[in-house]
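Memo to structure team: turn this sequence into structure tokens by end of day. - J.P.
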Amino acid sequence: MTEAPDRGKGAEPGAGQPEAGPGVGHPQLAPGGWRLLLWDVDGTLVHAGPVARAAFDLAVARALGRDPWEHGVVMSGKTDPQIAREILAALALSGEEVARHLPGVLAGLEGALAGAVEEIRRRGRVLPGVEALLPRLHATPGVVQTVLTGNLASNALVKLRAFGLDRWLDLEVGAYGSDHHDRRALVPLAVERASARSGHRFRPEEVWVIGDTPRDLACARAARVRCLLVATGRHYGYEELRDSGADAVLPDLSDVEAVVRLLLGPAPAAETI
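Reply from structure team:
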């Protein structure tokens, strides 16, 4: 039986509450069990404040030499390259012009966020339950947790490091907007990386995507893995997410032990995922 690896590089009742299972108090995986937990960043783990939208606007302005004004692009649940493409298209650029300016916009976005750590820390916040939940799961043998996010890899690190959350996550096996513009392509990348690093081939029923939008659910379903949605994002409330068809929906992550029981609980048979 494969041994559980070192999972990271850092330190060691209400509406929608999942049913309490056995092992209340200290839920654990069954002996030899594994879980791969793929966390969304914005709206699930943290709110970074208004800096992300401001960084996009600044990056576009520098690339084009003009202010993007109110482009109206909704960013929630999308990858950074997808957002950049939509902003440029909303400014009436042709497909050829979008392709030409996209690398400059993304490079500008990285630069703008790299210098905004203090603003993120000052105007953003960690979402309920996260600061207790991540170390609790990190300490559980057989659990690998990382991110699946539309952020460019460097931008995800900036946001997580601003609040000290990066130490609980193995970011080397994550999947990012810098890997692919289509979020639905990201789960297989993370599974492949985590499997190679851990020596365990993760099956779909051992994998959870945790996010706050229907796009998180869509990428989970594309890979036939499980999905937990939390209503802590800016655009989708609990009632709307509850009707989305996700495996579980919660108002937030504040009931840490209930969330742990859900994520570590017995996996269904693979064919039912």
